[in-house]
Specification:
Blueprint: E1 8-10, E2 33-37, E3 40-44, E4 51-56, E5 67-71, E6 81-91, E7 94-102, E8 110-116, E9 127-132, E10 140-148, E11 151-158, E12 166-176, E13 179-188, E14 210-220, E15 223-230, E16 239-245, E17 256-258, E18 279-282, E19 289-292
Parallel strand pairs: 12-14
Antiparallel strand pairs: 1-19, 2-3, 3-4, 4-5, 6-7, 7-8, 8-9, 10-11, 11-12, 12-13, 14-15, 15-16, 16-17, 18-19
């Protein structure tokens, strides 16, 4: 089992809430995710058998911030085990948490969503809305949602077939926060050397897996990007890459162009290791871009 610590990096500007902060923010926590809403940061990460949300005015205080287990799966279902990469979103005045889970068999990983109508996601009732899937119902993890020109979309990491060996980036429209509308489109797959580090020493898995996963949309004025993680998270080469929207149709694979070099890579000199599966979010004044990894 691989363990991750949580660290904060300011992409531009300076840290806007405290004079200093110390990394790591938490001693462990893969797949970190944070959003800022009404004066608070809401944070979550992979806990494996449950979903936990932290609430804090300052992310530097995560170690002491109040937290709550908002959902524990029932036993004996297709979503009872291996709960990965939860993301919390505020959509149409309701809270949603997207996550991947299975029944203990990795090939059965699919995406699911919870809903809460409370003003505070640590209060109220979380309702299981069900599986989020297109008609192919293939292996899927790391779902993330966003709005673009008044249309909701979902991006995720999935398999093209039913066999493990490569994880690609897919996109589809959403009819509502829990229903995919139409077919999925593959917009990214591991094609460069820096995306293809993935040897495994595990009898239950293929000898090698090429990986694109953990997609997240970023906007910069009129530009749209999908930031994703590349290479295996079990390797020291886990990094961040970028797809840029060059066309007008998000569901046309030719509209997306992958940058040939990674954005973030490991730097032993700077104490940065495997900066994949991150969370970008805005500072309270919306002037700075911050990243958790």
């Amino acid at each position: 089992m691989k363990f991750f610590c949580i660290v904060l990096f300011v992409c531009n500007g300076v840290y806007g809430q405290v004079d200093t902060f110390s990394n790591p923010l938490l001693p462990a926590g893969a797949d970190p995710w944070s959003i800022y809403h009404n004066g608070f940061y809401y944070y979550t990460h992979t806990a494996g058998n449950r979903i936990v949300i932290w609430k804090t005015k300052n992310l530097a205080d995560l170690k002491t911030a109040p937290k709550k287990t908002i959902w524990t799966p029932p036993a004996g279902t297709m979503y009872s085990k291996q709960i990965w990469a939860p993301e919390i979103h505020f959509i149409n005045q309701k809270w949603y948490v997207y996550f991947a889970a299975d029944d203990g068999r990795n090939e059965n990983h699919r995406m699911y969503v919870l809903e809460n109508a409370s003003n505070d996601p640590l209060e109220g009732e979380w309702i299981f809305k069900g599986k989020v899937s297109d008609d192919t119902d293939k292996w899927a993890i790391d779902g993330s949602v966003f709005e673009y020109k008044k249309q909701m979309y979902m991006v995720w990491s999935g398999w093209e077939s039913d066999q493990n060996g490569e994880q690609d980036i897919y996109i589809a429209k959403l009819k509502n926060p829990w229903t995919i509308d139409g077919k999925r489109t593959r917009i990214g797959r591991p094609i460069y050397d820096w995306e293809q580090h993935g040897d495994l020493n595990d009898a239950n898995n293929p000898r090698h897996v090429n990986v694109n996963e953990g997609p997240q949309m970023l906007k910069n004025k009129n530009k749209v990007f999908i930031i994703f993680s590349a290479s295996g998270c079990w390797t020291e080469y886990y990094s961040l890459g970028m797809l840029e929207l060059k066309g007008k149709n998000l569901l046309d694979s030719t509209s997306w162009v992958k940058h040939k070099e990674p954005l973030f890579v490991a730097s032993e000199k700077n104490g940065v290791y495997a900066p994949g599966h991150n969370s970008f979010f805005k500072s309270p004044d919306k002037k700075e871009n911050w990243i958790l990894y």
